[in-house]
Design brief:
Helix content is 46%, strand content 16%. Helix 5 packs across helix 7. The protein contains 11 helices and 8 strands. The protein is α/β, with parallel strands linked by helices. Strands 7-6-5-4-3-2-1-8 form an 8-stranded parallel β-sheet.
Length: 237
């Protein structure tokens, strides 16, 4: 089994995990930031231009610096998520979780049985099936180290939230403000008072149910914003 998932370790320790969000495939960024003690790198596989070979190289670089690679996937299909997990990704953010069926599918794709139905293959995400004496124990450990996050982005969440929260196996919840605003009829207005009020109410209901928002556990910044901030610091005012 690869190194522990540092986000889940932080959750157990009662502290926040710190990381950065990468929207373009650059192992060099991970290598440079490896000089600092970040817990995770978030790979935007939904909107970013990531090929499978690039994902694998990013995971390999992250592991070299004991940084946990997690990824937002383009969809929650089992075959889509498996391709990320087989590269070495240790956490999945599933987009557009709007129903209990969506939540169950997300868990099903991320976890081995009995929690899910993740397929096992001889690749780097499963240690090339090398030196695994007890596969059942390996499955259990893989499930314990897997981070599953449901991204809520649709109006249907308002009515379906209780059913979504009843699905076991999801560690964290997050709200996508731009898509959620559009779903509510306010495209391009994530700061509209009605959008903010509804998102706050959803977050309140999640915490009231004893579950955690991603923001409760993780804190990060987009690498693109970090680069722009550094550039502005060089240019004259």
């Amino acid at each position: 089994m690869k190194q522990p998932n540092r986000i889940k370790s932080a959750m157990r320790a009662g502290r926040k995990a710190y990381g950065y969000n990468l929207s373009f495939p650059s192992p060099w960024v991970i290598d440079i930031l490896g000089k600092l003690d970040f817990d995770f790198v978030f790979i935007d596989g939904e909107h970013g231009p990531f090929g499978l070979d690039q994902l694998e190289e990013l995971c390999r670089t992250a592991e070299r610096h004991t940084v946990t690679p997690i990824a937002r996937v383009p969809d929650i299909g089992s075959s889509t998520i498996l391709r990320f997990l087989d590269r070495g990704v240790m956490g999945i953010v599933g987009p557009h979780i709007a129903t209990a069926a969506d939540a169950r599918q997300l868990v099903r794709a991320c976890c081995f049985g009995p929690l899910g139905e993740r397929s096992f293959g001889a690749n780097r995400g499963t240690d090339y099936n090398a030196g695994i004496a007890d596969k059942a124990a390996y499955y259990r450990e893989a499930n314990e180290q897997m981070l599953v996050c449901a991204l809520l982005e649709d109006r249907a969440v308002i009515d379906n939230l209780d059913a979504i929260l009843a699905v076991p196996g999801i560690d964290l919840y997050s709200i996508g403000p731009n898509d959620f605003a559009q779903s509510l009829g306010y495209p391009g207005q994530p700061e509209h008072p009605e959008v903010v009020r509804t998102m706050d109410e959803i977050a309140r209901r999640i915490r009231q149910a004893g579950r955690r928002m991603q923001a409760d556990v993780m804190q990060g910044a987009w690498v693109s914003d970090m680069l722009l901030a550094a550039g502005r610091g060089i240019l004259p005012a």
